[in-house]
From TrEMBL:
Superkingdom field: Bacteria
Organism: Streptomyces viridosporus (strain ATCC 14672 / DSM 40746 / JCM 4963 / KCTC 9882 / NRRL B-12104 / FH 1290) (Streptomyces ghanaensis)
Cross-referenced Gene3D superfamilies: 2.50.20.20
PROSITE patterns associated with the record: PROKAR_LIPOPROTEIN (PS51257)
Disordered: region residues: 26-49, 230-256
Protein name: Lipoprotein
UniProtKB keywords: Lipoprotein
Length: 256
């Protein structure tokens, strides 16, 4: 199982032990009465599958997903990116993406894009090609407000949300016959099967839902140069693309 995960996606797990109580001390009973025998533990279909077969189940579920929310962090080219973004197959999105300093909130539906960010983000944006005085003037206008960017900026920012199909393709597990199944875990309160694969430099671990459809819930890549820690939720849940209140939106084309 080699998991080609967008931006080398992966996640930290929330691990819990399931305790099953199968019996208790009997109450006083009539002579000859028998205690009820413990109820056998029901086996999950995954328990009869190989890791590659579980992997195939997850791949099929991912392929048919129309939306999801991803939260966590990844490291690319030495830069840590933090993300909390709901995306769908139509290119809509709502959430935040950035690093520890420059974080942007984006809402996108169709060609409509709205973004909101703080001083450091806009200062970095406008410092290229403007004087320091011009930059600070623009920062003052933009900071803390929803912006409806002009076409070129909208297209650039909107690309953050246009990659859902690529993300799905990247998340699709590709069985290579080298995965192993570890002890089950829980992710966000949901039981999950855990599959792990090692290379000489990295360990990839994925957590696949055992209740409902076998969606990918979390994934981690540790070791190597690009560690990742991501969680996947809200599968097939509509993305909230409600525009910000009109009185909170700035149209930059109205500025001199």
């Amino acid at each position: 199982m080699k998991h080609h995960i967008a931006n080398r996606t992966a996640t930290a797990l929330l691990c819990a032990t399931t305790v099953i109580i199968t019996g208790c001390s009997p109450d006083r009973t009539e002579a000859g009465a028998k205690s009820t025998a413990p109820t056998p533990k029901t086996r999950h279909p995954f328990d009869t599958m190989t890791p590659e077969q579980i992997d195939d189940q997850a791949r099929e579920a991912v392929k048919n997903t129309t939306s999801m929310r991803l939260t966590g962090q990844a490291n690319s080219d030495g830069r840590q990116v933090v993300v909390d973004l709901a995306m769908d197959v139509r290119g809509s999105c709502n959430g935040t993406v950035g690093d520890s300093v420059n974080t942007m909130h984006i809402i996108k539906k169709g060609s409509l894009v709205y973004v909101k960010a703080e001083k450091d983000f806009w200062r970095a944006t406008f410092s290229r090609g403007m004087t320091a005085e011009q930059t600070e003037e623009m920062v003052a206008h933009f900071t803390g407000r929803w912006i409806k960017p002009p076409k070129t900026m909208s297209e650039r920012y909107g690309r953050i949300c246009d990659g859902f199909n690529g993300l799905i393709g990247g998340l699709s597990p590709v069985s290579g016959g080298t995965s192993t199944r570890a002890a089950d875990a829980t992710v966000g309160g949901r039981p999950a099967a855990v599959l792990t694969e090692w290379t000489p430099t990295e360990t990839t671990t994925v957590y696949i839902a055992k209740e409902g459809k076998p969606y990918l819930l979390r994934a981690t890549v540790t070791g190597g140069d690009e560690p990742v820690d991501l969680t996947f939720t809200d599968h097939n849940k509509p993305v909230d693309t409600t525009p910000p209140p009109s009185d909170q939106i700035l149209d930059p084309t109205t500025l001199r």
